[in-house]
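ugh ok fine here u go
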Amino acid sequence: MAKVVGRADKIFINGNIYTVDPGFSVVQAIAARDGRILWAGTDEQVRKLADAGTEVFDLRGRTVVPGLIESHLHPLFYGERLLSIDCFTKDKDVILREVKAAYDSRNPGEWITGAGWNEVCWSDKRLPAKEDLDRVAPDAPVC
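structure:
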């Protein structure tokens, strides 16, 4: 065990803890102080970092994984949007030109996707229709 200066304010024992270190280790326990992990290892190793003021959490075999902190981005949805046509602040004719460009460069059978259109921003306030899309992408699935 490497030298750790000071004591943990929280320890988590009896767990199945994924560390995501270079070896993707799974350990029994972790010790933390001020929201930072001091040590990851066995229950015995981690208990050595506790004193009378340390909170002890028995995980009872439950799994702990590193947290993902994000600003309410919905990562999967965001990634999908990066692969599609961003329609949010564009006029309908601009969106249709981008659908046509995607149609011209796609592989047969490949979907053309877009998201976020807002007819309030359009000069022509008519909602999009199947005929609008069929005109620029006649035999392609468009969503």
